[in-house]
Specification:
The protein is of the alpha+beta class. Among the domains are: 242 residues, D-amino Acid Aminotransferase, Chain A, domain 1 (2-Layer Sandwich), CATH 3.30.470; 130 residues, no CATH class; 68 residues, Rossmann fold, CATH 3.40.50. Helices cover 39% and strands 18% of the residues. It is built from 28 helices and 24 strands. A five-stranded mixed β-sheet has the order 2-11-10-3-9. Helix 26 links the parallel strand 21 and strand 22. The protein is globular and about 80 Å long.
């Protein structure tokens, strides 16, 4: 079986296209799983998709999309239930699919904590991952006051009355903290599931596809009497808000739950290091078929709760836990047709239309084919994949659904290839607008050159603009964007058109309310929703523009650094001449590399870059300063900077952005409450080896105190924190007269000594 290209081998364009495929698939899976209780893919496959997405984003943080799955937990709550805001966000888990992934997780944890091999092993708990529905139950003074589903992680559905009917969930607790949120999984046993379906078949009622669907559907009933008639169970394994600690360790907290009267999983163990973790995983996997309930993996958590606190969280997942998933499956089917989809960056993405086939309990009819090289049977370096077998329409293909892009075409059975099957000719013109589709040197993706002339690109950019992490306008989603884009009388062709919709509608004598699907009330509701988003934070605006390489994280970094829309745009404008000089320098460096036959020649490369900069007096000092400031932002590199500056200096793009800005009240980034912070507003650079904290911890602490963390030293740097091994940054700081302190001095300054 062919193996998928490793994340480390992906080009930026390949990564961007994979992220687009993943975002679309995961968005549909989220809605089906969390809102409709009718999953289209299994939990294992969903988490596999999410794992691949996270790995790509880790390597290419600037490509992070508005609809990135790593920024989402669950899905919006159903309108059928009252909403409950979680006092502590309900997170999801990162995933592992192989032993090596678990070892990488352990290495990452140890690096973050600054643990050396000589410090000994690290204890973890290992427990079965229940395939059910997450539930958070809040107790105050020992009495249940509410119960809520996970929802989107921040807001869940109020299912308190339903939770009271579950026998495993006590209504009162003795000896509990004053405030205690118990979290766990609602599930249904195999025996109870079969009995429930049998009863429904006898009475002509709805039968369920699997126990998870049955449990979710039962808990999310409007009538609690229906829930009471369903055989639901509950395992407790986590917590939210606490008025006092439960224990010092994860295992101690689980024991406390059991003492309070909750069911906890008897297969939970404390493991001393990787070998014991993997051994327990195999033991649970062997018992999987006889447990009597569904599990889809094993969850590992750092046992020491103080270490959990230090490790903290990413945007949607804890750093101290991971789910080790069970293997997925393969299937063979016919590839009926290869179709090309055009994304918002113009990338032409081939999609396989398949004769539907069940893979891992899910019906699959589409699969990604990545790019033209993948179809031709070669990788980005020109080396053969699938033993060099190309993919053709009519082929009998193997579909693989696991830890990589899912589903994908992994192999071809040449013995079943039709005699008339022709090699696939990848289009050199855009199928949407007819513009030339260009593949630049070193790029694995062919792109439409039509820009905003291409309707597919324009529509996808608008969909990005209204997506959840961008403007997130209620009632204006992907389907509505497609409708308005095609409308000749009341079109939306660029973002500013959204905010002039009501004015244009009034001039057309309230045309929208007379359209199918809209009445006076629904039209007014849409206009109000649009008006509500005129006032919007700077980071969301930057992200919503859909600039290539500017993901959600990069947008947030830019917003924190520049604080306001006016400062941001002036800085990008000022950096224009320097960005052009950077591109010229990199072109010269590329030519130098191509001719660098030995180490001596390669040593000239950096000198070539500096020479190009030095020989161009046309770059004003203020432009160079603006450029250095931009690329010096921690997390922002030259690739992002060039993309930003290029976009803002294109006449048509800039005019569109200015028209949008005129309709908005862009909110400055609120500075953290750091009135007593000694580093608030200062630019700090960390260099060398930090011995008492990791670099990630140091950065997070500095930003929490209101400092800006930069990746390079410049005249704007206020403070350099230099550990052992500090090199060129320390030298440059000395030349510029920047104050330099060691790690102990930093800790004393911020009061952590």
């Amino acid at each position: 079986m062919a193996t998928e290209k490793a994340v480390a081998e992906l080009s930026q364009t390949e990564a961007a296209e994979e992220l687009a495929v993943l975002a679309d698939k995961l968005a549909r899976a989220n809605a089906a799983y969390h809102t409709e209780d009718a999953p289209e893919i299994s939990d294992a496959d969903y988490d596999s998709l999410k794992r691949r997405n996270a790995a790509i984003e880790e390597r290419f943080p600037d490509l992070k999309r508005a609809d990135s799955p790593t920024e989402q937990v669950g899905a919006p709550v159903s309108e059928s239930f009252a909403k409950v805001e979680h006092s502590v966000r309900m997170m999801s888990l990162s995933n592992a699919f192989a032993d090596e992934d678990v070892r990488d997780f352990n290495d990452t944890v140890r690096r973050y904590l600054g643990l050396r091999d000589s410090d000994g092993g690290l204890a973890y708990t290992a427990e079965p991952k229940i395939d059910g529905l997450s539930l958070s139950i809040r107790y105050e003074n020992g009495r249940m006051v509410s119960a809520a589903t996970r929802g989107d992680g921040a807001v869940g559905e109020n299912v308190t009355a339903n939770a009271r009917t579950i026998g495993d969930i006590p209504e009162t607790l003795k000896g509990a903290p004053e405030v205690l949120e118990v979290r766990g999984e609602v599930y249904m046993s195999h025996a109870d599931f079969e009995a429930l379906n049998a009863r429904h078949e006898e009475t002509g009622g709805k039968t369920f596809a699997n126990p998870r669907n049955a449990a979710a559907g039962s808990l999310r009933q409007i009538d609690p009497k229906i829930t009471a008639a369903r055989p639901l169970k509950f395992f407790a394994y986590a917590w939210g808000e606490l008025s006092e600690p439960l224990a010092d360790t994860q295992m101690g907290a689980i024991a406390r739950f059991a003492k309070l009267g909750f069911q906890t999983n008897p297969l939970t163990r404390v493991c001393d290091g990787i070998d014991e973790m993997l051994a327990h995983y195999r033991d649970i996997e062997e018992q999987r078929a006889t447990l009597g309930y569904d599990i889809d993996g094993v969850v590992y958590k750092v046992n020491d709760l103080e270490l959990q606190r230090r490790l903290g969280f990413r945007s949607t997942t804890p750093r101290w836990a991971i789910a080790h998933k069970f293997p997925a499956e393969l299937a063979w089917t016919r590839l009926e047709k290869i179709e090309i989809q055009v994304g918002r960056t113009g990338a032409l993405s081939p999609v396989a239309r398949l004769t539907p086939v069940t893979v891992g309990g899910v019906v699959v009819s589409n699969a990604t084919l990545h790019n033209e090289d993948y179809i031709a049977g070669r990788d980005a370096k020109g080396e053969p994949i699938r033993d060099g077998k190309d993919i053709r329409e009519g082929d009998w293909v193997q579909v693989y659904r696991a830890g990589d892009v899912i589903p994908k075409v992994a192999d071809v059975d040449l013995s079943k290839r039709p005699d008339d099957a022709e090699p696939y000719e990848f289009p050199h013109v855009c199928p949407e607008c007819g513009s030339e589709a260009v593949r630049e040197e070193g790029d694995a993706v062919r792109r439409c050159s039509g820009g905003l002339v291409c309707p597919a690109q324009a529509v996808e950019k608008l969909k990005h603009f209204v997506s959840r992490a961008a403007f997130d306008i209620d009632g204006l989603g992907a389907k509505q964007i497609e409708m308005f884009y095609a409308d000749e009388g009341l079109p939306i062709r660029e973002p500013a058109d959204i905010f002039t919709l009501e004015r244009r509608d009034t001039k057309n004598l309230a045309r929208l309310k007379n359209r199918d699907g809209y009445g006076e009330t629904s039209a007014k509701k849409l206009f109000n929703a649009i008006d509500e988003k005129r006032k919007i934070p700077l980071n969301r605006v930057i992200f919503a523009l859909g600039i290539r390489h500017v993901g959600e994280v990069a947008a947030a970094d830019l917003a924190r650094h520049y604080n306001s829309w006016d400062t941001f745009t002036k800085a990008i404008d000022a950096a224009g001449p320097a960005a052009q000089r950077h591109l010229k320098a990199e072109d010269a460096v590329t030519r130098e590399r191509q001719h660098a036959a030995d180490e001596g020649r390669r040593a000239q490369i950096s000198a070539t870059r500096e020479k190009v900069w030095a020989e161009d007096p046309a770059v004003p000092a203020e432009a160079k300063a603006a450029w250095d400031d931009l690329v010096g932002i921690d997390g922002i590199g030259a690739t992002v900077a060039v993309s930003l500056v290029t976009t803002f200096h294109q006449e048509a793009e800039r005019a569109s952005i200015d028209r949008l800005a005129a309709e908005l009240d862009v909110q400055d980034v609120a500075a953290p409450a750091t009135s007593d912070s000694p580093v608030a507003g200062k630019t700090v650079v960390f260099t060398g080896t930090l011995e008492k904290m990791t670099r990630a911890e140091a950065k997070a602490r500095a930003e929490a105190l209101g400092a800006k963390v930069s990746g390079s030293v410049s005249a704007k740097t206020d403070l350099l924190v230099a550990g052992p091994g500090a090199g060129s940054k320390a030298t440059k700081a000395a030349d510029l007269g920047v104050e330099t302190i060691d790690e102990d001095g930093w800790l004393a300054l911020i009061g952590d000594a």
